[in-house]
Amino acid sequence: AQIRYSIPEELTRGAFVGNIAKDLGTDVAKLAAANLQVLSDSDSQYFSVNVNTGVIMVSERIDREQLCGQNPRCFLHLKLAIENPVEFYRIEVEILDINDNPPEFPGDGVSLRIYELASLGARFPIQPAQDPDVGTNTLQTYHLSANENFNLNVKARTDGGKFPELVLERALDRELRAFHHLVLTAEDGGSPPQSSKTHITIQVLDANDNHPVFDRPSYGARLVENSPLGTLVVKLNATDVDEGPNGDIRYSLSSHNSAALRQIFAIDEQTGEIRVQGNLDFEEATVYEIEVEAKDMGSPTMEEHCSVVVEITDVNDNAPEVILTSFSSSLSEDAPPGTVVAVIHVRDRDSGEQGKVQCHVSPDLPFQLRKDYEHQYSLLTSTRLDREHVAYYNVTVSASDLGSPPLSRHTILPIALADVNDNAPQFEQESYEVLVAENNPVGSVLVTVSAVDPDSEQNSRLSYSILRAGGTDPGLDPTRYLSIHPTSGQVSAKFPFDYEQTTYLQFHVEVSDGGSPALRNRTLVHVFIVDQNDNAPQVHFPRAGEDSATQFRISPSTTPPALITKVVAIDADSGRNAWLSYHLVEATDPGLFNVALRSGEIRIVRALQETDASAHELLVVVRDAGEPPLSTAVTLVVLVEEKGPEALQGSEAQAADGGGLPTITLYLIVSLVLISTVSLVGLAALGVRCL
């Protein structure tokens, strides 16, 4: 939207300009809630807006002549920006001229020297008065005081300026009157009008009575801007019918020309050629009007004036300018599409098609340009952003004009994406499997779990903790046995493991980042305790004290392979460490008894003889298959006696003991089968999980 107001210059501070809320048709409360802001194209803040009333007021003194000089129309441009959603309103404030400056003549007065033989109708330019006002308030006319010889002619220039000329209406006679004193009054068109005066003193000279005459009253030329130095503009031609020095003509630029024009053009005083000696810029001036005078060498000198109008043709010599009105170099990665990143103002000092500018950005970037109105664009996000994919953008805004060939300018906008905690930590493995030998040292590192978080800084700082896995024994708390370093993820043992008490641990490790709110993830850790041969076999039968041996009685008529007894032992270890073997190490008669290697059964090998001893001591060693192996020894005494009460009692005890042996063996077999089954099921489950 665009709104235009008109106010006179020199208004007091706080003067009313307009009601933006009323002119936009919106509620004042909405403007205040939308964070209304005033942006000015100029360096000074001439206006302010009361967000509570919507009224635009003057905040600084406005001098139209200082702002716009002699331009007929003077504008100040404002932009009103509101948020939620972002909208811009362009306001043009036209500054109207008031008649606050009177015309002023340069210097204290004007002195002219005119020959008495000057022709009737001869013109004598007077330095014009200057009035910085414009329109009707600027200089409008001149008035000359009453006199007998001169009349006033006001010459209008193409740029609207007016300068006076004295026109000789009646011949001069120096002998009758040598000096003439006139008063020239300059008056503007204001209401009321303002004026100023200057005094003209004319000295009448004798002699040279013919002045130079140009072959044309005015000359015209057309040049392309940026023409090279030395380019010929025009060649002037003036003649003087006098002879000798009175007819010798010298050309020069009139004092009416400004200092800036004298730096651009130069004239050859002999030939009258005007050439370029400075830079021609269409954007600074489109037309130059050069005042030239031709003087003869008489005494006194006579002169003639003419004007040369030089039109400048525009070429595309100015690249577009890109001005950042608003820009944020940091953008949150979760900014929604359509977020305004920058407000860009473009301009081109050339005219016509060469001054029209188009802007664009690369289509490969997640940004786009929206044209708000003429010469202003907004840079918006076009898609979702992801800092973990691209953390930094260099957005090149290209502005090109429509000239031939076109000129362009590229401005790079560096945009860094601020991190948002939008990525949960990820473990390097879905689960971890650890084999730990029992009797491990306290504090030994069992496994190191590692996770990564693609976020940055605080959002990527990870912390590890141990949690009990679902479905595990409630009494088997992993934090009782294990600890984890919160930053390195190293899992350590608090106590040595005992395979005979715990064969397997399962727990979760949870990792959380430092974002707010924090994001978490878990992994499952399986700890398998590996058995070590740390338990010697224990003899369950026959039971005996530390320093005593168990006695068994047999009849002398016992024949081989009669079972004397059976040694029963159990090893708390598992696997090979629990595989037991039985060995007869010492015997009174080594050839009379033997021990079964695996079952521990002691049998008689041959028939007893009368020469055999009546008591036989046997030392049986039970050894496991561990590395190194562990063993236990048991001593048995076999007594050879005839049947009697004691022998019978011994036989009954033996029978009773023999009846108990199969039950213990059965228990051992069932225990081994159960242990083997549980091990096989565990290994099968582990294999399935690995697959």
Automatic annotation (TrEMBL):
One of its GO terms (cellular component) is plasma membrane. It is a single-pass type I membrane protein. The chain crosses the membrane at residues 664-688. The gene is PCDHGC5_2. Pfam families: Cadherin, Cadherin_2. Its main location: membrane. Residues 6-105, 129-214, 215-322, 323-427, 428-539, 546-664 form the Cadherin domain. Coiled coil: none annotated. The lineage of its organism: Eukaryota, Metazoa, Chordata, Craniata, Vertebrata. The keyword Transmembrane applies. GO terms for molecular function: calcium ion binding. Keywords: Calcium, Cell adhesion, Cell membrane, Glycoprotein, Membrane, Repeat, Signal, Transmembrane, Transmembrane helix. One of its GO terms (biological process) is homophilic cell adhesion via plasma membrane adhesion molecules. This is Protocadherin gamma-C3. It comes from the Eukaryota. It is found in: Cell membrane.
